[in-house]
Design a protein that fits this description.
With 338 residues, the chain is α/β, with parallel strands linked by helices. 41% of the residues lie in helices and 19% in strands.
């Protein structure tokens, strides 16, 4: 029996991907240091799927622990989620981001190579496009980064491209996510950020559940239909299914491909607030605040390559996203501590 190793498997996207992999017949092994996640998520994944998840606590920078992991388990491929991901925080502690995200990935790849495992799905980000000059954004768009978090993702992409150039028997997909939102429709697993949320949807949900007084909308003077920033929001279950498709693709292909995972549709901050209020029949108080440095006006994907190569496209609607977000938050007001 072989396992798919999920680094950061207990996190928001990792746990949803674990569930979709189990539903597709794969065996799942999670390796997570629980710095921004909870083992409770994987327990709930087991309950939802009726299948076991092997969960090992460890850090991808720990070479000895990784070597032991690959020795103890028959691993056929890796989905690499483990990483720090807060843009603002990355500007304050950049060395920590580069050590964790970049050095951790190099260590992981070194142990993979030692163990003869050369199939990797990497959790990248649309931040590698910087302030893109065209939307929708194709995979061929020039890359740049406006903060250390984005820079760490971009560095890893370059490292993995160099690796495949040197060793063409690797098979790697770089999945560039747009803005994951929502939760599993059971309401049992979802996004559970530490402290103040960095992302829009958990902040809206926490205002709606009464944990926070109001939402700050950063900037209402962008050149968009209502002045607020426009992003491509993708349901986390659609995103998770994209990873399953990417693994299936790698079973037949070597080389490296960068693939956008998004809907191809942009929604503004106020579109999201209004949809949440309408679908869930609950008010979300907000205030307009100054723009944040580094934010851009509009960002959404050209998702055609994912459909062509992986046979994948987003299926969930905006109403699904806000309904599932509220179902998770209202059933778990304190996240996995509820």
């Amino acid at each position: 029996m072989s396992y798919i190793l999920l680094t950061g498997g207990a996190g928001y996207i990792g746990s949803h991907t674990a569930l979709e992999l189990l539903n597709a017949g794969f065996k799942v092994l999670s390796f997570d240091n629980f710095s921004n996640s909870s083992d409770a998520a994987l327990k709930r994944v087991e309950q939802l799927s009726g299948e076991p998840v092997v969960s090992i606590k460890g850090d991808i920078r720990d070479e000895a622990a990784l070597r032991q992991l690959f020795s103890d388990y028959n691993i056929s491929a890796v989905v690499h989620f483990a990483g720090l991901k807060a843009v603002g925080e990355s500007t304050q502690i950049p060395l920590h981001y580069y050590d964790n995200n970049v050095a951790g990935t190099v260590t992981l790849c070194r142990i993979m190579r030692e163990s003869g495992v050369k199939k990797l799905v990497f959790s990248s980000s649309a931040t590698v496009y910087g302030d893109a000059k065209q939307v929708p954004i194709p995979e061929t768009s020039p890359r740049s980064a406006t903060n250390p978090y984005g820079q760490s993702k971009l560095m890893i992409e370059h490292i993995l491209e160099d690796l495949v150039q040197a060793e063409p028997d690797w098979g790697i997909t770089l999945l560039r996510y747009f803005n994951p939102v929502g939760a599993h429709d059971s309401g049992r697993i979802g996004e559970d950020p530490n402290g103040i949320p960095n992302n829009l949807m958990p902040f809206i949900s926490q205002v709606a559940v009464g944990k926070r007084e109001k939402l700050s909308v950063f900037g209402a003077d962008y050149p968009t239909h209502d002045g607020t920033g426009v992003r491509d929001y993708i349901h986390v279950v659609d995103l998770a299914r994209g990873h399953v498709k990417a693994l299936q693709y790698l079973q037949q292909h070597n080389g490296i491909e960068a693939i956008n995972l998004g809907t191809g549709t942009g929604y503004s901050v106020l579109d999201m607030v209004n949809a949440f209020s309408r679908v869930n029949n609950i008010a979300v108080p907000y205030q307009i605040a100054p723009r944040r440095p580094g934010d851009i006006a509009t960002c959404y994907a050209e998702p055609g390559k994912a459909e062509k190569l992986l046979g994948w496209q987003a299926e969930k609607t905006l109403d699904d996203m806000v309904r599932d977000s509220w179902r998770w938050q209202s059933a778990n007001p304190n996240g996995y501590k509820s």
